[in-house]
Amino acid sequence: MGSPTFRDVTAALFAFCDGKPSPSFDQALHPMGYMVNNNCIPPMCNLLTSDDLHTVHVVLDALENILKSSPTTLLGGYACRTGSVNFHATLVTSFKGKENIESLLSHINEEIKEKAIFIVKGYWRSRQ
């Protein structure tokens, strides 16, 4: 199977953006785990630079759900609170997702900016 197309990724995003993390560690059966296992993170990180506000908002929601579904998160909170590594945050970072989310911290749309701030503080910034 090749890389997912833009159409495939956007369809998956809209299908899974309301996905809730499961307390199960069987990530392959959970919608967020399915997206991670099928290489949806790289194109999602690329979509963060889209000019379409709705797409960016949906991508942020989906990435937040993916970050929540990481086993570290399920064991005790955000990675920055536990000092543990959030595997999904590491994946998002490796595909420039963290960088793209940080670029949204000064976005003109207040909802996108607030969501980006929440995600960065929750998954990458340690407590002060």
From TrEMBL:
UniProt-recorded name of the protein: Uncharacterized protein
